[in-house]
Amino acid sequence: MTVYFYAILFARHPEVRPMFPPGMDAQRGRLLRALLRIVELVDDAGSLVRFCGHLGRDHRKFGTLSAHFPAVGECLLASLARYAGPAWTAEIAAAWTKAYGAVAEAMISAAEQDEAVRPAVWPATVVHRISRGHGIAEITVRPHTAYEYAAGQYVSVETPWWPKQWRYYSPANAPREDNTLTLHVRAVAGGSVSSALVHRATVGSVIRLGPPMGDMVLDAATFGNLLFVAGGTGLAPIRALVEEVARRGERHQVDLFLGARTGDELYGVDDMLRMAQRYHWLTIRGAVSHEHIPGLRGSLPEVLAEFGPWYDHDAYLSGPAPMVVSASETLTLGGTSPDRIHHDPFETPVLSLP
Ligand SMILES: Cc1cc2nc3c(=O)[nH]c(=O)nc-3n(C[C@H](O)[C@H](O)[C@H](O)COP(=O)(O)OP(=O)(O)OC[C@H]3O[C@@H](n4cnc5c(N)ncnc54)[C@H](O)[C@@H]3O)c2cc1C
Ligand code: HEM
After folding, report:
1. CA-185 nearest atom, ligand 1
2. For the sheet containing 225-231, what is the strand order?
3. Is the peptide bond preceding residue 309 cis, with omega within 30 degrees of 0?
4. Same-domain check for residues 242 and 293
5. One domain, residues 44 and 131
6. Mean pLDDT across the chain, nearest whole number?
7. What is the structure's pLDDT at 295?
8. DSSP state of 297
């Protein structure tokens, strides 16, 4: 259905094709999931409007305008009709027409309200770049206008080398006075945007940022003690949170666990040890799963379980999805309440909203 939808959309309305990236495979699945979500929420007006609001704001960076909605609606209804076959009665058609109108209205109105308070995208110049080995680069950018975000949030990024391909990266610093932010990017094998950032971005390159997103911020913590767990470049938002604790001067005790498969891959450990020397409230421990290193042996969840219990901590987890899932299970089994376990979504954030 979605293959057909995009085919007729681009054939009937070729002016919208340049808004999309060349490869549409991932997008078809996202559209379908959004439609399923809308159907699921159809009897819960508050949640439906909230979801559509996020979707509408998210679409601003794609260049979507209210004038585009009729074209999408016409092709969407035509595609549903074609694949529903005899189930597509006049009553169903009328219901879908009404539903699409409501969704479009909620998306457009949220986008308009957002437009009144902030830009859709922020061009940002690369001002510094350090290679950290293992395909990781730290890239500092300065947005051309003020960019407000909270430590622990992530931002969407578009590069000049892969226009229309938006990916998410987490600033590794709390907000700075000079408006710069540092991203830690690992080039994944065959990955377009990450490889471009690591291998092609140089000082002076201009990328574009979407608005900051995410709830893995310090305000989500309910009590005093904090547990931070990071794997690979998942360290970025955790590092920003450590800076934020220091900036606020609050009396948190912070336990930070860094995980990797091998000692070599234990990313960012020197930087974190320096921070632990500066801040007496910060304790760093490493966990290496695939190499025997005295004092560091074990997967992150094993090492966490060994040093627990953590039920009186707010936990912030960041890294590869399997690590976050298993660390979260370890903590829940140890008595941590799920609402005190914070982590980012694993993929398209707007579709992962609770
Ligand atoms: C909330 C959030 C925050 C993120 N923060 C960071 C960050 O701070 N630093 C960072 O480096 N990345 C981060 N990511 C991952 C990042 O957004 C991209 O997904 C990643 O850089 C790959 O993009 P790409 O265009 O290079 O790969 P694509 O061209 O999208 O994918 C190419 C291939 O790589 C595989 N692949 C995609 N992502 C990964 C991955 N993470 N690991 C292994 N294989 C993968 C795909 O399945 C595909 O086969 C974050 C993702 C999310 C959702
Ligand atoms: C009911 C209406 C719509 C729904 C449910 C919907 C759904 C989605 C979803 C879920 C995404 C992925 C979001 C993300 O990656 O953050 C997306 C991306 C996108 N949408 Fe929509 N959309 C709608 C209307 C429109 C309209 C009217 C346009 C304008 C032509 C549009 C253009 C785009 C573009 C250009 C992208 C980016 C594609 C990519 O990155 O691959 N959408 N849409």
Report:
1. 11
2. 282-288, 254-260, 225-231, 313-318, 341-343
3. yes
4. yes
5. no
6. 93
7. 67
8. B
Same domain, 14 and 93: yes
Tell me which amino acid residue 144 is.
Answer: H
Distances, alpha carbon 255 to alpha carbons 49, 81, 286, in Å: 39, 55, 11
What whole-number percentage of the chain has pLDDT above 90? Answer: 82
Question: In the chain, how long is the greatest CA-to-CA distance?
Answer: 71
Closest ligand to C-alpha of residue 36 is 2
Residue 169, domain extent: 122-213
Say if ligand 2 is within 6 A of residue 281 CB. no
143 and 254 part of one domain: no
What's the gap in Å between 171 CA and the centre of ligand 2?
25
Give me the pLDDT at residue 267, please.
82
If DSSP codes are grouped into helix, strand and coil, which group holds residue 239?
A: helix
Q: How far apart are CA 267 and CA 235, in angstroms?
A: 8
| CB neighbour class for 144 (10 Å; exposed up to 12, middle 13-18, buried from 19) | middle
How many structural domains does the chain have?
Answer: 3
**Side-chain half-sphere exposure of 32, counting CA atoms within 13 A:** 14
Q: Tell me which amino acid residue 169 is.
A: Y
